[in-house]
Design brief:
alpha+beta; flat
Length: about 160
């Protein structure tokens, strides 16, 4: 195959189109006048508004300490995951307000908000957070109940007689 096209320039010459230079996206940090970054996190029915700023690692959720609001150690671990993946443990203070859903969904919403706020504060952390899957909203929600069914999919008990 002597007429094989090997480079972008050859392809553009054959097609009669100018080659497009690769675009490099430069992300800038987004902070308010107090040096904080804000993001909204969502999970199931829970919505969390999260502000992060440099500090000692204090996490306040709905006006309470993290250990008080999320009493289960598993939920506290979920909130710490974005910091450990990004390698910035105990470097940011978090202030979050969360509404809706249960405690597990609220913990997931705060984690999503912290991850988004961290990548807005320092865009160099985006790669690690995205590789861990923390910037993607978990879109799983409760399935609605259908008519003629007991629950979303569960049927009424069948009786032969």
């Amino acid at each position: 195959m002597a007429d094989q096209i090997n480079t972008l320039e050859e392809l553009s010459a054959v097609a009669g189109v100018e080659p497009v230079a690769e675009q490099i996206i430069v992300r800038e940090s987004v902070r308010d006048e107090f040096g904080r970054s804000y993001a909204t996190g969502k999970r199931k029915d829970a919505v969390a508004r999260v502000w992060i700023k440099p500090g000692s690692g204090k996490v306040i959720v709905n006006g309470k300490e993290m250990k008080t609001y999320f009493a289960r150690p598993v939920l506290q671990m979920i909130l710490r995951q974005p910091f450990t993946v990004a390698g910035v443990e105990d470097q940011f203070d978090v202030m979050a307000t969360v509404k809706g859903g249960g405690l597990s969904g609220q913990a997931g919403a705060v984690k999503h908000g912290i991850s988004k706020a961290l990548q807005l504060y320092d865009p160099s952390l985006r790669g690690a957070l995205k590789a861990a899957g923390f910037l993607t909203r978990d879109s799983r929600v409760v399935e609605r109940k259908k008519f003629g069914k007991r629950k979303a999919r569960r049927s009424f008990q069948f009786s032969k007689r």
